Amino acid sequence: MSLTLLRLLRELSGAPEPGDVGAAGCGPHGPPALVLASPECGISGLMFMAAALAAEEEGAVLYLCPQPLQTVPNMGRAARDPLVLKQIRFVYPPSMKDLLQFFSSLHLMSPPPSLIMVDGLERYLPPTCSLQDGARICALMLDSVSHLGCGLLVSAAPSSEGTDGAFLAVERYFPNQFVVYHDLCPEGKKQTFKMSFMSPRPRWNLRIKEDGSLGVSPCITVEDHSPNVQN
Amino acid sequence: MELTLPSVAEELLREIKRNFQETSQISDEHLLGLKFIFGPTALHALDLVDQRSVTHVTSPSGRSTFQCKHILAVYLSQAVRCCQDLSVSDKQMSEILLAKED
After folding, report:
1. PANTHER family recorded for this chain (chain A) (predicted)?
2. Closest CB to A140 among B90, B93, B97
3. Which end of chain A has fewer CB atoms at under 10 Å, N or C?
4. Interval A95-102 mean pLDDT
5. Which of A108, A136, A140 is the closest to B61 by Cβ?
6. Which residues of B touch A107 (CB under 8 A)?
7. DSSP per-residue string spanning A95-155
8. How much is the ipTM here?
9. φ, ψ for residue B60 (rounded to 5)?
10. Would you say B69 and B99 are in contact if contact means Cβ atoms under 8 Å apart?
11. Looking at the DSSP assignment, which residues form a beta bridge with residue B65?
């Protein structure tokens, strides 16, 4: 799933992104990935755009979240071609029990999707959840996509109070993580964030514009301009 | 560094599997290797394999799972091909995957 995210960020930022995230040999979507982001950064919008990109390029996508999306971004491939939306099947398991039931029955689904997305996993992990609960849903998700041979992308807000135990397991099951966090030095009054795979250097800026649309641009650092820096 | 131990364990299990195919037993050297890497856990796992406590469950969809709480026992049972096979329907497979261990 890392590869789908990379393709999306390249497309939105209009800039090529050098390097990869160690995703070779894991299918068109790359290895399963966890997006760690607070809800206010518009991560559901990015997830939806990733779903649209994957649907257009690879076929059917399953999009799971506890409640229907209230708004969808007016940009990206879904905006250009509404038919893309027909390739995305939205499923709204209301509780952890329903989510577990869904994944434990995925082998009954035919044909299988090319990609499964779970948006807002933290909403399935209330404070009463234990480490074992987190491990159980992650193991079942990973087992299911391994059986189907499809991609998996999960988003979650990491700092929900009281879910530390369950979340420790979630982070352990998904070593391939993509992190979105507040930009500490925002310019102007726009909501700005930094995004990167697990790496000390941010790779992209995410900006929520006044009309609610998302802007993505590559991070330019001093090192990027220095002719003496060697990779 | 994080990947070193899993790699060593996987290689050891591969060796045990190769050796078991030729001799139908686990050599003393491999038993020592198991004890060195996994400690007392290895003994419990070997006991479970001896007692054929690991069950490999499959369904027509091709989905499969193992019934045994001891993950090392599951790996060892695969290496020495010593587990019980159980075929279930796809619906039963869903129920098995959904069942919560108490």
Report:
1. ATPASE SWSAP1, PTHR28653
2. B97
3. C
4. 95
5. A108
6. 59, 61-63, 90, 93-94
7. SHHHHHHHHHTGGG-SSPPSEEEEE-GGGG--TT--HHHHHHHHHHHHHHHHHHT-EEEEE
8. 0.81
9. -55, -25
10. no
11. B57
Asked if A131 has any chain B CB less than 8 Å from its own CB, the reply is: no
- The pLDDT score that the predictor gives to residue A22 is 46
Amino acid symbol at A162:
G
Quote the pLDDT of residue A25: 47
Sign of CA dihedral B95, A143, B77, B28: negative
Residue partners of A62: CB distance under 8 A and separation at least 6 = A89, A91, A113, A115, A116, A117
Q: Does residue A89 have a pLDDT over 90? A: yes
Mean pLDDT of chain A: 80
Chain A contact for B91, CB < 8 A?
yes
Rounded alpha-carbon distances, angstroms, from residue A120 to A40, A92, A94, A188, B29:
12, 11, 12, 29, 49
Instruction: Using the predicted structure, report yes or no on whether residue A209 has a pLDDT greater than 80.
Output: no
Q: If we measure between CA atoms, which residue out of A91, A100, A101 comes closest to residue A133? A: A100
Tokens of B24: 């139908």
Tell me the per-residue pLDDT of A131-150, one tens digit each, with 9 for 90 and over: 899 999 999 999 999 999 99
Q: Which of A136, A208, A142, A206 is nearest to A165 (CA)?
A: A136
Average pLDDT over residues B50-71: 93
Query: Are the CB atoms for A132 and A94 separated by under 8 Å?
Result: no
Chain B interface includes A100 (CB < 8 A): yes
Closest CA to A141 of A128, A155, A130, A159: A155
* Residue whose pair of structure tokens reads 């790996």 in the numeric block: B75
Q: What's the pLDDT score for residue A210?
A: 73
- E-strand stretches of B1-101: 55-58, 64-67, 84-87
